[in-house]
Amino acid sequence: MKQFLETGKITGTHGLKGEVRVQPWADSPEFLAEFDELYLDGGSKKIEITSARVHKNMIIMKIRGVDTIEDADKLRNKVLYMNRNDVELENGAYFIQDLIGLDVIDDDTDERLGRLDDVSETGANDVYHVKTDDGKVFLIPVIPDVIKEISPENGYVRIFKMRGLFD
Asked: What is the reported pLDDT for 160?
């Protein structure tokens, strides 16, 4: 599992004093605004966040040492990373990046149904996109009746293959 996870992208500048606009790639912009430290360059360069606030589903962020619009503009299109050790997930919660690529297994037959290719957050429940070996994509609701076991450390998700899910 990757130590540093993509969590947002700097999309532009805000004002004249070096603030940047960040598009969050997290469950909520508020989550990303909580961090005191983030990383650039795949996790190799630590940056200190001196302030962050949510503004229209974006984050306006001030990074220590970035004090002019010119400094901020140099960061445009940079991806921000978080260290997975900085977050304590609730029991049964996973980083989406840890789920992508897992084998999806039928819990009754042990048949491999495909690979988890994407996750959509719909509000009521997430939806797993399962891609079969022949390229078809099936949408699986992430609900207790369907998802029986999630094991990123062992490389699989076990599901109950409800009638209609793979038709």
From this structure: 93
